[in-house]
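P.,

For your records, the input lines for the assembly:
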Amino acid sequence: MGIVIFDGVAYGMLLFLIGVGLSITMGLMNFVNLAHGSFAMVGGYAASVLMNRWGLGFGLSLAAAFVAAALVGAVLEFVFYRRLYRAHPLDQVLLSIGVVFVSMAAFTYFFGPTMQPFTLPPALDGQVALLGLDVGRYRLFLIVCGVAVLAALLLGLGKTRYGAMVRAAVDNQRVAGGTGIHVQRLFFLTFSLGCGLAGLGGALSLGMLGLEPSFPLKYLVYFLMVVCVGGAGTVTGPFIAALLVGIVDVAGKYYLPEAGAFLIYVFMIAMLLVRPNGIVAKKGIA
Amino acid sequence: MTTMTKRTVLSTLLLAGFGLLGSAAQAADEPLRIGLIATYSGPYADYGRQFDAGIALYLKEHGGKVGGRTVEIIKKDTAGPAPDAAKRIAQELIVRDKVNVLTGLDFSPNAYAVGAIATQAKIPTIVMNAASSAITTSSPYVARLSFTVQQVTDPMARYMLKEGIKDAYTVVADYASGVDAETAFKKTFTAGGGKVSGEVRTPMNNPDFSAYVQRIKDAKPQAVFFFFPSGVMPPAFLKVWKERGMEQAGIKLYATGEATDDSYLDATGDVALGLVTSHHYSFAHPSPKNQKFVKDFAADNGAKLRPSYFAVTAYDAMAAIDLTLQKTKGDASGDKFMDALRGLRFESPRGPIEVDPLTRDIVQTVYIRKTERVNGQLVNVEFDKFDRVKDPAKESSN
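Structure tokens returned:
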């Protein structure tokens, strides 16, 4: 029982780490960014290549994954995304899905269609005894990372001047611009941050998920689920949703293997019926 | 409007006339057109790449000719399992491109879809991978040079019994081939006195195996047999298997060769070490024929692309077409070709193979291998074998 909940929490943390960036780009900035997985893939490939070909350490590779995905995000924001902030959501969907397919083809071209090799550093391999349970070290590490990212985002968006400006700009761009906030630059930074977080999540997922060019489409449904069930535009919402999805998924597969894989979809539908705007609905869009 | 129609009819008749003349005059100097239906894009693009490399190697070794005829390969992409596309492509290849032979067919649904077309057009069709047992029964013009899932699973069950295992747990991916593996394993294992104490089918798109592995750990079976398609699933499963300390818990693990597919073995990494699998081809097969094959393959494709069982079957399929056409003196018409193909025997890089005259399915040696690190490379080292294994699903009909 204990280990099942632990595994569920760890899996949920992974979903949170990959998905929270989407909550920022999609929820805060109102951009339906289905290409989120592409940025996660950029981070994953960056970390994998740096570790396996260049022998860089795991910690540094994670940082590099964040930077690489943020940079790619910044470039794409400058070239494509900023033109469509006020466009119809359907246009945004088309653009971002286009980005997904282009990124899949590009990664196949440069890295081949097969899986990327990846080995966890020995310190994160195997199990460690914790409160009477044999828990996976890597899973424990994911939980620590998840909590750290949650805390950093809550502080950054809730307590800093930057966070206040972002919230103001999201609520009313014209008034925010009138008070001297450079909205476009702010959105540019925020979008890059969301992409960087995706990259970090992608790199952290290497120990559990396989990385190949079909990654962005394969896991899209999980990112969307976490953000929609949690409430787009918030940080605590996706966190709670990811934990619930993770626990429901792992426990379902453990106790009811015949039906387990479908329980998260049942759970998602039930949650959306009860709280259509997500577990933690964003203020102002009730 | 009427003139248009008349003109169209006339030109069609003329064209048809030329076509008839052409086919009457067709002789050994006509190039042999081979339609290759495979996956060249998407997550399974590696399959098409392996096919191409195997075919190219055979043609290079034989001066671009099979059965005395020059070869023209027309490649078509299905982008993965897509029976509708495969069917449409097969029609196009036959009607528009006038192919003499169809081949490729990496996914079973695609092969089934093409079977009906092969029957209608009487076009010999050589399956290069699709591993569902019943494919060769779908048309008298379909033969298979690859393997069936049941064919490689059955020897593994026999091997486990030989090792004194009485109690096994099965884990398979929830799709047709997974169910095939589960069925074949259960049948052979229980017939030999073993007991399947638990079984689970996992969804195809399963990111985290911790729940399934934990469940097995708590059930404490003597051994586990698993089948997943090659790709991301086996490494994900093996990672969790290692993390949970299943080996230390005394639970043995066995699988079919998809788990340690040569194409993915490097990326899978050390978690595959020591895993015992059953399959018809290993890149490390020690025969001289294979050593030459691997060397020539590397010379053409570089050391990065390892020939997998896809490349070997593609190479063998070309050899089979070659040998068959030698028998028919270059005649590739459906019935003659299939008659000559039945019972064909030759030496492949994987070992001796033959086409069963009754079922048109392959009969071959299935090897038991262990993943080891040799000269810094992960390879499947063969240490036991089962000779002349037929597809067990069709054994009763023989």
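Two observations worth noting. Residues 119 and 139 of chain B are 6 Å apart (CA to CA). Chain B has two domains: 32-147+287-360, 150-279+367-389.

Regards
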